[in-house]
From TrEMBL:
Source species: Catharus fuscescens
Segments crossing the lipid bilayer: 87-109
Membrane topology: Multi-pass membrane protein
The entry's keywords: Membrane, Transmembrane, Transmembrane helix
UniProt-recorded name of the protein: LHPL6 protein
Locations listed in the record: Membrane
Presence of keyword tRNA-binding: no
Amino acid sequence: MASSLTCAGVVWAFLSFLCAATSCVGFFMPYWLLGSQLEKSVSFGTFRRCSYPVRDESRQMTVMVEQCGRYASFQAIPSAEWRICTVVTGLGCGLLLLVALTALMGCCVSELISRTVGRVAGGIQFLGG
């Protein structure tokens, strides 16, 4: 297999992939904020939450649902700031994955990544980060 990357480019490709994978895992995990509510441990991220309170109308009280789940809709995310964060972080993870996978393909395919493409990819990574 021929490569269009230098040795530094190969290292960049693998580090880019590791960083993109770590960012995506962090984005999908609901452990951004940890705390307690109604004597239960709770956590939530931009679009997922674990152990959250709901109103039980039959017993007329608030109970804790002790499971993880995503919000029912985009509008159910608690605030406009968290909705913006969800969109921006999701787009950033998508850009990082796009660049990382392209760089990894550059390790296997000759003439895929030129100096100009590498510079543009670095700029995209900067924006994605």
